[in-house]
TrEMBL record:
UniProt KW keywords: Oxidoreductase
Organism of this sequence: Streptomyces lonarensis
Gene Ontology, cellular component aspect: cytosol
Protein name: NAD(P)H-dependent oxidoreductase
Domain Flavodoxin-like fold positions: 1-203
Cited Gene3D superfamilies: 3.40.50.360
Length: 250
């Protein structure tokens, strides 16, 4: 498989840096071809602005401007290069530390600038379909909190719910198949042996990258939603939380 390793951490000597090194080595040993995007090392600009699309002097509408540039082949060079990496990949490994219940801003800005209208959305298909259908997405996330506190009954909430905007609103929306995230907790307190065990766990997940069953989100075209895009009354009756949108076929 061809992998895009999308990495967002400012310190190469960190636990994240170690996991990336071990993970890429494991992926390569498995026969995968890995392309990296190390956002901090690249000096990635995460800000969507008129500077990306200087044509026109009227009101700046980011979606329309990026769509026009995408169709005309006039996107900024850095954005076009990342789109080429993404489109050429069979799977994406997205690795980052959990900061304030989300990814670092530099990573959010990668999605903002790369998944433009015409590629990430506005394609006529979404939630289980779309331009990125057929690709798999594995999230590797470290957290200072212990893993038990990021579980369904943990004080911080379930990791799957914390990452809902990424797993469902980004991966699944664009057609990618989201895999269960790999969480490494207590990241700033791990012993050397525990760090190696975390790297081994990542290698295990990479071994099943092409065969692991994705999270079973309900596709928009599954028939589970009515014309107002709400779950039908007979689907997951009585459930009001995010879990109601799990249970589709994969």
């Amino acid at each position: 498989m061809k992998l895009l390793w999308l990495y967002a951490h400012p310190e190469p000597r960190s636990l994240n840096g170690h996991l990336r090194t071990r993970g890429i080595a494991a992926a390569t040993a498995l026969g995968h071809a890995v392309v990296q995007s190390d956002l901090y090392a690249m000096g990635w600009n995460p800000v969507v602005s008129r500077a990306d699309h200087p044509d026109g002097d009227g009101r700046f509408r980011a979606a329309d401007a990026s769509h026009a540039a995408f169709r005309a082949g006039r996107l900024p060079v850095d954005v076009a290069a990342e789109q080429e990496k993404l489109l050429g990949a069979d799977a994406v490994v997205v690795q980052f530390p959990l900061w304030w219940y989300g990814p670092p801003a530099i990573l959010k800005g990668w999605f903002d600038r790369v998944l433009v209208k015409g590629l990430g959305y506005g394609t006529g298909s979404r939630y289980g379909a779309g331009a990125l259908a057929g690709k798999r997405a594995l999230t590797v996330v470290t957290a200072g909190a212990r893993e038990s506190s990021l579980a369904p009954r943990g004080i911080h909430g379930s990791l799957d719910q914390i990452l809902w905007p990424l797993l469902h609103g980004t991966y699944f929306y664009t057609g990618m198949a989201p895999l269960r995230p790999l969480l490494v907790g207590s990241a700033d307190r791990l012993t050397e042996a525990e760090a190696e065990a975390a790297a081994d766990a990542l290698a295990d997940r990479l071994r099943g990258l092409g065969t692991e069953r994705p999270l079973a989100f309900r596709a928009e075209a599954s028939g589970d939603y009515d014309e107002r895009l709400r779950l039908r009354h007979d689907i997951a009756p009585g459930e009001l939380g995010l879990e109601a949108h799990l249970g589709g076929s994969t």
